[in-house]
Amino acid sequence: MKRILAIALMLASLASQAQDKTTRKIIEIGQNDNRTMIHDDFLANRIGGRPVGSHALEDAEKWVASQFKSWGLEVMVQEVGEIKVGFNRGPWYGRMLSEDGMTLHFGTPGYTAGTKGPQKGHVLIEPKNKRELERMKGALKGAWVLIGGTSGGMAIDWSAQADERRAAVADTGGYEPALFYREMVEAGVLGFIQSSKLPLQIHYDRANCYNITMDNLPTVCDIKLDETQYAIIEQKVLHMDDFLLEFDIRNHFNEGPVKYHNIIGILRGSKYPNEYVLLGGHLDAYDIASGAVDDGNGTSVTMETARLLTASGAKPARSIMFCIWTGEEYGLLGSKYFVENKTVPWDKISNYFNRDGGPNATTGISVPEAMYDDFVKVCEPIMSLNPEMPFTVIKRDKPQEKPKKAGGSDHAYFVMNSIPAISFIESDPKGYNFNYRKIWHTEYDLYNEVIPEYMEHSAIVNAVVVYGIANLNHLLSREGLYKD
Fold it and tell me: What is the 3-state secondary structure of the chain?
């Protein structure tokens, strides 16, 4: 019996030494050959914005899968859904033609119409009631129409249901932007222009994109214009100044269906291959910019975590899944599909770590008491990894509330189903004052907004922690995690 105990202790010691050696190797590679920013550069500057249905998202999926394969991971390509028509964005340009002319600063939501070449036209302010509509009908043909309200980035809803709602509003004498949308389109307008706060926030045609076919493509432009320029143009119309607007918008549609996929890399566990530690970020991104931060930052850190582990020769006891989700911006589509289809059993997931914020440093984690000792042990090698970015483990004093409906990011469907999805604390210890509101879904979501030392540090921390959690001799306890 003593001999068996001695052998067991010796094997445990050898396993611990091997783990320590691998952890040191992860840190060494991460500090001397960190490629997090190379991944983000490729995503943002070689591929660019990646909305669902675009060639860019398809290219990004193939690239991530090829990278995972080249690092020796198993690769799961999980078809999540399809969209009937693809959308790809070309260049766009606009100007005001007058003695005080100017270049226009604007964007168009995804899945809205382009101009089919440069189009010049006069400018009108939309009619607010049926009497105004009748008076203006002859002038609407070939006009750019200013509509009211302030854009939040979404397209004008031109569905049949929206037409019915607008008709009911008009009948009561009420008003909403583009109140007579259908009538103005039938009268031959070139497009609609709406004021947008800066920085421009440009999304997609949420109401209609899944119902568009090659037989019912949108026909008129939907322009979101810099609020300052909008005010100038509106005043010129009110003063009856002589001027034109010209736009050249290359929005392209291609016949589908276009499928979209989760790309999941798997480092298979050596002892508990059917138990899992997960981490991830989403691959899709709005195309007003390049998606370097939202969520090139999460995708790139996840990818480098995978590369550090494979390059170090890590052989975790549990399987580690590197989840690059699709369709987060379109409704958490990829993570929802993964969870609801029980891609892996829910009770075999130790934790899912999500990254979908700013490019800040991973500097801590807050966990329930039942997980605290495990995380303190696992995180010990990174507590003082960088004195300028110390790592802390915080003990929670109460269970987490579960949301009643999904929102926020790809952790949501995990949490709603009581699956552990504790994410790292991300902060700005060196005072770069990154402004997430400035780049969130805006034209400033660019590579030069990313903070390299924070991204690279986060990849090292991720790799050490997920490797340590995967090597525990038990799954993380769920006691006290969520309120019942």
Answer: CHHHHHHHHHHHHHHHHHHHHHHHHHHHHHHHCCCHHHHHHHHHHHHCCECCCCHHHHHHHHHHHHHHHHCCCEEEEEEEEEEEEEEEEEEEEEEEECCCCEECCEECCECCCCCCCCEEEEEEECCCCHHHHHHHHHHHCCEEEEEEEEECCCCCCCCHHHHHHHHHHHHCCCCCCCCCHHHHHHHCCCEEEEEECCCCECCECCCCCCCCCCCCCCCCEEEEEEHHHHHHHHHHHHCCCCCEEEEEEEEEEEEEEEEEEEEEEEECCCCEEEEEEEEEEECCECCCCCCCCCCHHHHHHHHHHHHHHHHCCCCCCEEEEEEEECCCCCCCHHHHHHHHCCCCCHHHEEEEEECCCCCCEEEEEEECHHHHHHHHHHHHHHCCCCCCCCCEEEECCCCECCCCCCCCCCCHHHHHCCCCCCCCEEECCCCCCCCHHHHCCECCCCHHHCCHHHHHHHHHHHHHHHHHHHCCCCCCCCCCCECC
Domains of the chain: 25-84+257-470 (3.40.630.10), 102-242 (3.50.30)
The per-residue pLDDT for range 240-285, each reduced to its tens digit, is 999 999 999 999 999 999 999 999 999 999 999 999 999 999 999 9
Count how many residues are written for the chain.
Answer: 484
407 confidence band (pLDDT: 50, 70, 90) = confident
How confident is the model over 72-98, as pLDDT tens digits? 999 999 999 999 999 999 999 999 999
